[in-house]
Amino acid sequence: MRYIRYAFYAALAVLLVTVSLANRDMVTLNTLPEAVAAIPGVGWLSQSVEVPLFIVVLGSLILGVLLGEVLEWLREHKHRADAAQKGAQVRKLERELKKTQAERDKDKDEVLALLDQAS
Fold this sequence. Notes:
Layout: H1 2-22, E1 26-30, H2 34-37, E2 48-52, H3 53-75, H4 77-104, H5 110-118
Antiparallel strand pairs: 1-2
Helix pairs in contact: 1-3
């Protein structure tokens, strides 16, 4: 299974390098459209930068994956909290069980108590 994953990663890397080499043309990224930048008091927000197209594509892909991971992590918070609460409850019940068994077995022979605990 590990080799299949490595083969997938290698194929993905070849694909990304090929797309990157095919899209090296420079593009201009603007923070605001020209019509919005013309509004008085908003012009200072208008910035532009020229970068290769593959950086825009790969950057968008990485940003989307990171945003999706963060949102999924936040969505699963209730499940993690519930699992932690149930784990604490299990540990508490195990402690109570051991205490109850110890009280039950205090008057028994040690060998019989060990046999009861083993089964």
